[in-house]
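Worked problem 6 (solution included).
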Amino acid sequence: MSEHAIEVTINGRPVSGRVEARKTLGDFLRVDAGFTGTHLGCEHGVCGACTVIVDGLAVRSCLMLAVQADGAEVTTIEGLAAEDGTFHPVQQAMRDNHALQCGFCTPGVVCTMAALTADDAKPSEDQLIAAMSGHLCRCTGYQGIRRAIRQLTGQPTGVAADHGEHA
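Solution. The predicted structure is:
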């Protein structure tokens, strides 16, 4: 089997390694680099749990080969909080709105929303909800995630908002 040397910047730190051509970025992040916050669910790109940010874009790490990330800047869930532990605004919105239960899908959801709101981008509530259609969550019923999206877009986040009422 052929191995390739790769160098990737993960969460601001250079990481190098040798990988088989067929190794996914998700496996490289978890097994080789130790970033286990990246969760592998379906390994077919359907569930969204493995989503990370590659060069500013939300990417399913189970569908991207590690060799394709050579030279790229990768951000995982571990790299979103500030050095002092202050949550990223998306993490804070998820926490504020009880938008997680088991937490398996959460890193992918957070990375998707973080990529879309980076550099002070202001996606609409509809745009963020559309982006979430690529994430499967078996625990939350999605309402907490919808409230977190509303918080990120400056909309009302209460229970009345979940039912289309004005809070």
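Discussion: Residues 19 and 116 are 30 Å apart (CA to CA).
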